[in-house]
Design goal:
Elements (H helix, E strand, L loop, with lengths): L2 E6 L7 H16 L3 E6 L5 H12 L5 H25 L4 E4 L1 H4 L1 E3 L8 E4 L2 H8 L3 E5 L2 E4 L5 E3 L4 H13 L3 E6 L20 E2 L1 H9 L7 H10 L3 E5 L7 E3 L20 E5 L2 E10 L4 H11 L7 E3 L8 E9 L3 H10 L1 H4 L3 E5 L2 E7 L9 H11 L6 E5 L2 E7 L3 H11 L18
Parallel strand pairs: 1-2, 1-9, 2-6, 3-6, 4-7, 9-11, 10-12
Antiparallel strand pairs: 4-5, 7-8, 11-12, 13-18, 14-16, 14-17, 15-16, 18-20, 19-20
Helix pairs in contact: 1-3, 2-3, 6-8, 7-8, 12-13
Function: Catalyzes the phosphorylation of the beta-carboxyl group of aspartic acid with ATP to yield 4-phospho-L-aspartate, which is involved in the branched biosynthetic pathway leading to the biosynthesis of amino acids lysine, threonine, isoleucine and methionine.
Pfam family, one: ACT_9
GO molecular function: aspartate kinase activity; ATP binding
Length: 427
């Protein structure tokens, strides 16, 4: 008997028929002998519809009230799913994040989990019942206010509960069959990965892969929770995210990890270039102090060589496009004391990232990447690297072509049937 935490996304419980289908899968797992805890997202587009409804009332709804409103979506899902499971003859009980013991900080809209105290969930398991938990939400320890966890919060809830309960595995059910070597909507020949390390999955998530959110993977790595990414629309074996070694090969030796895990892409970033910065100590530090002070996270940074005649240089950096206005306003306000000439803002960029733990011990990966982009006629504007990742910035309208070219160059194309996105969203 295993303790399994399952998470189902919005596309998996989008309507009554989908909820009944998911209930059958859960009931079958329970009848097979496993203890089951389920975390569920809001049905379909319910969260977006609630946001739209709030904005019809006021363009600036109070964050506390928004959290109370948005958590209603998951409460609807959890209760309906519990009804469907009970209707199949398997006892199930639903819980809000507060009832499940998910304790967060007090930052409404993007709260972070600080503790999990799942007493009621344990009691439900011990009674032989299925516990259904509303994802995406928790409660503060001091004010008892309801909070939401931000994008991908249900994934994070599931992994946090799995860690708190000491579960054997956390199964994340989406509308794709697992983690792929690229987005199957862009690369139909993308290959499903059987196993990915935590570090590789962190880089994939941070570089734009949508199947798991970054916080979920960080939590899983911190507490050693194996995460199994699967589709709720099929019975195929998915992708296991873990640092456990792979199974032994036919000769008794461990199967060597592939050099490259996958190619990720991101269209959500923009680039700011600070033009004419005096090339003296402290100016770059001042620029990034101002940006950090405005609450903006920076991704890639490039500084040009200063011109000998003027002693000025240009500094470019990428950031989330949603923070572009905030960062440019903050820098413009401090232009006199920084002393730069002007700002350039570009939101028509795309980022491509090549990720693989194997590149640490294999020379020539960078050369092969740049050659593939050159052969496809794609210009590189910025480059950033880590031990297991190489990221480049290109024009947004060249990004899809770049992903396909790099995927093929590193022989990641599958010769099996095309990858399927069952629900249409890849989440």
């Amino acid at each position: 008997m295993a303790l399994v935490v399952q998470k189902y996304g919005g596309s998996s419980v989008s309507d009554a028929a989908s909820i009944k289908r998911v209930a059958k899968r859960i009931a079958a797992a329970k009848r097979a002998g496993d203890d089951i805890v389920v975390v569920v997202s809001a049905m379909g587009d319910t969260t977006d519809e609630l946001i739209d409804l709030a904005q019809q009332i006021t363009p600036l709804p109070p964050s506390r009230e928004m959290d109370i409103l948005l958590t209603a979506g998951e409460r609807i899902s959890m209760s309906l799913l519990a009804m469907a499971i009970n209707n199949l003859g398997v006892k199930a009980k639903s819980f809000t994040g507060q009832q499940a013991g998910v304790i967060t900080d007090a930052v409404h809209g993007r709260a972070r989990i600080v503790d999990v105290v799942p007493h009621r969930i344990r009691e439900t398991i011990e009674r032989g019942q299925v516990a259904i938990v509303a994802g995406f939400q928790g409660v503060t320890s001091d004010t008892n206010d309801v909070t939401t966890l931000g994008r991908g919060g249900s994934d994070t809830t599931a992994v946090a509960l799995a860690a708190g309960l000491g579960a054997d595995v956390c199964e994340i059910y989406t509308d794709v069959d697992g983690v792929f070597s690229a987005d199957p909507r862009i690369v139909p020949a993308a290959r499903k990965l059987d196993r990915v390390s935590y570090d590789e999955m962190l880089e994939l998530a941070a570089s734009g892969a949508k199947v798991l959110v970054l916080r979920c993977v960080e939590y899983a790595r911190r507490y050693g929770v194996p995460v199994h990414v699967r589709s709720s629309f099929s019975t195929h074996t998915g992708t296991l995210v873990t640092n456990e070694p792979a199974a032994e090969g036919p000769e008794g030796a461990a199967v060597e990890q592939p050099i490259i895990a996958g190619v990720a892409h991101d269209r959500s970033e923009a680039k700011i270039t600070v033009v004419g910065v005096p090339d003296v100590p402290g100016k770059a530090a001042r620029i990034f102090q101002v940006v950090a002070g405005s609450g903006v996270n920076i991704d890639m940074i490039v500084q040009n060589v200063s011109a000998a005649a003027t002693g000025l240089t240009d500094i470019s950096f990428t950031l989330p496009a949603t923070d572009g206005a905030t960062a440019t306003a903050a820098l413009s306000e401090h232009q006199p004391d920084i002393g730069f000439q002007s700002l350039q803002y570009d939101d028509t960029i795309g980022k491509l990232s090549l990720i693989g733990a194997g590149m640490k011990s294999h020379p020539g990966v960078s050369a092969k990447l740049f050659a593939a982009l050159s052969d496809a006629g794609i210009n590189i504007e910025m480059i950033s690297t880590s031990e297991i990742r190489i990221s480049v910035v290109t024009r947004a309208d060249s990004l899809d072509e770049a992903v396909r070219a790099v995927h093929t160059a590193f022989e990641l194309d599958s010769d099996q049937q095309e990858a399927v996105v069952y629900g249409g969203t890849g989440r």
